[in-house]
Amino acid sequence: MTEIVKASLENGVQKIRITADKGYHPAHIQLQKGILAEITFHRVTPSNCYKEILFEEEGILEPIAQDEEKVIRFTPQDLGEHEFSCGMKMQKGTYTVVEKTKKSLSLLQRFWITSIFTVPLVILMIGMSTGGISHQVMRWGTFLATTPIMLVAGVPYIRSAWASFKKHNANMDTLVALGTIVAYFYSLVALFTGLPVYFESAAFILFFILWEQFLRKKCEKILRRQSKNY
Fold it and tell me: How many CB atoms lie within 10 A of CB 65?
């Protein structure tokens, strides 16, 4: 699954680091509109394809030597998905510009909030399968537990998918947004019509995606520390 990594906001500046080695890592990033962005590119590969960094829509073309770190600075203004690439336009990545938020939850905060509300979902499913919880309690319980998960974890994916849609593009956030929206709103209708509900499907999709991103971020931090020690 393609992951879109958000730039961190430090002292009013968006910062993110990208490694150039057999592609760009991460290859898909998210920036907020109207806030200065500092994107640090670290070129590892000796391939001449990576000797320049191109942000064509921003009018930026900068050279970068092997093992050099090049900081690209600009203030994103146009919402939606945009492209950056090597100078030859053979290796590409994207940066998605979203509306500036007053205060957004970090990945860690979204993961723990989602985890907290996933616990009652597991209890409800176990109780339902063992006969300890009635069908009606399970239906309303999964609705109450999934709704905050959709608000905390689902909304960022929906916003990203909508921004890409307005640019006539689609990414993995589009798939996540569509899957969770369909499961949640179908279940919302089913809740009042006596049909089976699938609230837990939307919740578990978001939980496992955040879990994967959380573990990936942790591993990246550990590897970064180890590389500094060497």
Answer: 11
Digit-coded pLDDT (tens) for 27-68:
999 999 999 999 999 999 999 889 999 999 999 999 999 999
Contact 72, 7 (CB under 8 A): no
Give the contacts of 94 (CB within 8 A, at least 6 positions apart): 27, 28, 29, 81, 82, 83, 84, 171
Cα–Cα distances (Å) from 201 to 61, 123, 126, 179, in that order, read: 45, 15, 15, 9
Burial of 94 (0-12, 13-18, 19+ CB in 10 A): buried
Q: Does residue 158 come out as left (phi exceeding 0), alpha (psi in the -120 to 50 range) or beta? A: alpha
104-141 core/surface letters (b: 16 or more CB in 10 A; e: else): eeebeebbebbeebbeebeebbebbeeeebeeeebbeb
Q: Rounded distance, CA 7 to CA 81, Å?
A: 15
pTM of the entire predicted model: 0.56
What's the pLDDT tens digit per position in 136-176? 999 999 999 999 999 999 998 898 888 778 777 777 888 99
